């Protein structure tokens, strides 16, 4: 792929040229400690964006609506759907262990291959399982169990590398460009989603061998793209975690500017450092409660459309494409705004809007007006709002975590949010089954209240470089 087609160079290059290389913190943390050029940083950013394109295709085929529809076609129970939603969150509990291992290596790139490589190889087993099912060697129930085992194993392996990967990316992207760069990167990923989801949905629905075999077809394509994304990481500047953890400053910036915690003694263990970082603890409280509140209801929207409304997979993928399109169109704007006014004000204001979105599902049915007007509008609203939430949550996390022991900070945040998200899914699934709580409509109303309350700790989080 021609990197110029991504149109990142004209947006990123002028800003990179205005930032001293030393302020990226890369010159002291590279694997070989070489001097960093602006061209090398630019190449790393392009490689990271191309990585996002290929990884998005892989993610489309192994998560979300396509995997959910695959389980529906197999006749999976609601318990299986609950496990499918909760597994990716529960396995975040292994991220602190992954951070511990990664900080004892000398290469972020190699550690990424060791964790994400097996994570993606495992999906080949499911592909062969689908082939076996088409030949009558595997029944549907066995295929459901195999799918859940692979989801668990794949996410466990990937979870060990997640914090290290995020720390690697945080070191490469200059702090002054985070909003704009991640806005562009996420926007391109959304464009990939916009194009790929309906194509994959059509392939699954119209495959002459049936939808199960159709999913096997898109799955093997997704696995190929998953390995192409790992290949893109070869072109990113490598970082030595051991050297990174000896780093306590960035050029002429002071500790407050780069988000270093206000602690009396920097010679602490990672967990002792976190316990003395009150600002990060406030962020952790917000992030955990927010994830819990969102997952009370969010995982059940697709199930509501596919199950309760009995919509065809092509309708649902169309709505997903509209959501991805809205995400694409607004992501760059949110990125520029975040660089200008900060991430926290956006999270508070858009968070209030997102809190009320579950209530909008209460009047949705399967009438023609709902199918052609209200459901498309609702997904467009979701796409624009979540573009802001996802981008700013990511940027704020990068801003409150210091360079030293950075991956441990990210791992702790992921572990807490993963556990709280899984708890939210579990409680949401239980509440949805009790008619005295109003079923799904009652659950959506409860989620709205919890989302609003979860925003309170965010008011007290200080954003690095903003002073308040």
UniProtKB/TrEMBL annotation:
GO terms for molecular function: transmembrane transporter activity. The chain crosses the membrane at residues 52-72, 78-101, 121-138, 144-168, 188-208, 214-235, 283-301, 313-334, 346-365, 371-389, 409-434, 440-461. It is found in: Cell membrane. It is a multi-pass membrane protein. The keyword Transmembrane helix applies. Keywords: Membrane, Transmembrane, Transmembrane helix. Its main location: membrane. Gene3D superfamilies: MFS general substrate transporter like domains (1.20.1250.20). The keyword Transmembrane helix applies. Residues 274-468 form the Major facilitator superfamily (MFS) profile domain. This is MFS transporter. It comes from Cyanomargarita calcarea GSE-NOS-MK-12-04C. The lineage of its organism: Bacteria, Bacillati, Cyanobacteriota, Cyanophyceae, Nostocales.
